[in-house]
Write a structure and sequence with these properties.
The complex is a heterodimer of chains A (141) and B (288). Chain A starts with a strand and ends with a strand. Chain A contains 5 helices and 5 strands. With 141 residues, chain A is α+β, with helices and mostly antiparallel strands. In chain A, helix 3 runs antiparallel to helix 4 and helix 4 crosses helix 5. In chain B, helix 1 runs antiparallel to helix 2, helix 4 packs parallel to helix 5 and helix 7 packs parallel to helix 8. Chain B folds into 2 domains: 90 residues, 2-Layer Sandwich (Alpha-Beta Plaits); 157 residues, 3-Layer(aba) Sandwich (Rossmann fold). Chain B is 32% helix and 31% strand. In chain B, the strands form 3 sheets. Chain B has a 7-stranded mixed sheet, with helices on both faces. Chain B is of the alpha/beta class and 288 residues long. In chain B, helix 6 links the parallel strand 9 and strand 10. Classes of the chains: A alpha+beta (141), B alpha/beta (288). At the A-B interface, strand 1, helix 1, helix 2 and helix 3 of A face helix 1, strand 2, strand 3, helix 3 and helix 7 of B. Strand 1 of chain A pairs antiparallel with strand 2 of chain B.
Chain lengths: 141, 288
């Protein structure tokens, strides 16, 4: 019989750096799972991606076991990397902090496609463009 | 450290994605999205900030208000609560029980009762915020290997000691002298405390440092339970730390990364003497 799901917890945390402090500890602690085991496993699987945020979707079962899969980094993280900026603009309408080409946006959309709620690549590109604008990144071309 | 948790509850996926981006930017250590059956499409997004940083809370609330205005259904009021260190640092202890490993090893959390019977070898551990509770396969593999080695009177160097669990096991199995290092000063403090709980005295040394901090000597057993890539990066220092006929125990290797560790061992002309596996974790014993 399939195990019964108690909760699904998606953690957006820096690769290779999980530890039992908040937010990991406070997110997983109430579900009574082995937090240290999660941290060690997450860090092992994401060690090659240090410097990126790598989301982990943790499925917790009613018998206190868990499984997890890692996802692609969030759009904002990919945009910052490609644009070469440490953070987005605090006033995105007024202060533009970087420029990207349409091809760069397409590449990000292709990377994120499997984790986005987009029907096709054009829909994914639209989502990426929206996120870029909210961070003060303009798209050229 | 005390934290303030900020949670926006009962929202849809689109709102959750936008708020996660915001929490990633301003929160401490990232964002968390959770969902419960039967309504997996209703989500809660959380983050924490340092309780000493009320300005950030104000900024986040202002940004949430702006996001709420842009969404057709608005956003529920964010909920905040103070999370004291004791709330998060102690909660995992409830599920940490006495565990038997290998032939005679018994791991006893320091807050649990256990009446040992011969020939039990009891390791009393309070891992605190350090890695090494004995519950994880990587630690279990090392403990099984240590129990099988003739450790009596052998010198041992534990790199990335965490809670000190492997050094403590080695000491109880007769290894001496022992040196344990970790780059995390919390781990070094926890290891010292665990040595004291186990009433270990004699030739035991704990220091902040990595594999190069050998204490100026070669070791008959070198053990490193870290992660595959780190083991590869440290390989030169680990090999340098070994006595000519020494054993190198490597753990923390997820099976898909075993190849890079084997290649590194080969490049130092080390042979794998033993390989053990639990779930998808591998531990290797190598020698010259």
């Amino acid at each position: 019989m399939a195990k019964k799901i108690k909760a699904i917890v998606k953690l957006q945390i820096p690769a290779g750096k999980a530890n039992p402090a908040p937010p990991v500890g406070t997110a997983l602690g109430p579900h009574q799972i082995n937090i240290m085991a999660f941290c060690k496993e997450y860090n092992a699987r994401t060690q090659g991606m240090v410097g990126s945020v790598v989301p982990a979707e943790v499925t917790i079962y009613t018998d206190q076991t868990f499984t997890f899969v890692t996802k692609t980094p969030p759009v904002s993280d990919l945009l910052k990397k490609v644009a070469g900026i440490p953070k987005g603009s605090a006033a995105p309408n007024k202060n533009k902090v970087a420029k990207l080409t349409r091809n760069q946006v397409r590449e990000i959309a292709e990377t994120k496609m499997k984790d986005l709620n987009a029907v096709d690549i054009d829909g994914a590109i639209k989502q990426i463009e929206g996120a870029a604008r909210s961070m003060g990144i303009t798209i050229e071309g | 450290m005390d934290f303030i948790e900020i949670a926006v509850k009962n929202i849809d996926g689109e709102a959750a994605e936008t708020i996660s981006e915001l929490f990633n930017r301003y929160g401490h250590g990232g964002a968390v999205v959770d969902t419960y059956p039967p309504n997996f499409d209703r989500l809660t997004v959380r983050t924490v900030i340092s309780a000493d940083d009320p300005d950030v809370l104000g900024q986040i609330k202002a940004m949430l208000a702006l996001i709420g205005q842009a969404l057709p259904n608005g956003l529920p009021e964010p909920q905040t609560q103070l999370i004291g260190e004791s709330d998060w640092a102690e909660s995992w202890k409830e599920h940490f029980h006495v565990v038997r490993l290998g032939q005679h090893l018994v791991i006893k959390p320091s807050w649990r009762e256990y009446q040992p019977e011969p020939p039990d070898i009891v390791l009393e551990i309070d891992p605190g915020m350090a890695f090494g509770s004995g519950l994880h396969p990587t630690t279990q593999l090392c403990l099984e290997i240590l129990e099988q080695l003739p450790l009596q009177g052998q010198s041992l160097f534990d790199v990335g000691t965490g809670s000190g669990i492997l050094a403590i096991a080695a000491a109880k199995l007769g290894a001496t002298p022992i040196r344990a290092v970790d780059i995390d000063d919390i781990a070094v403090r926890v290891t010292r405390e665990n040595f004291a709980i186990n009433r270990l005295t004699g030739a035991l040394e704990v220091a902040v440092g990595s594999a190069s901090e050998t204490g100026g000597q070669k070791w008959q057993v070198v053990v490193a339970n870290i992660l595959a890539q780190t083991l590869v990066e440290l390989m030169n220092d680990l090999v340098e730390a070994m006595a000519p006929a020494g054993n190198l125990i490597l753990s923390g290797i997820i099976v898909e990364h075993e190849g890079i560790v084997l290649t590194a061992l080969e490049s130092y002309h080390l042979k794998v003497i033993q390989r053990r596996m639990i779930e998808d974790w591998v531990a290797l014993v190598a020698g010259r």
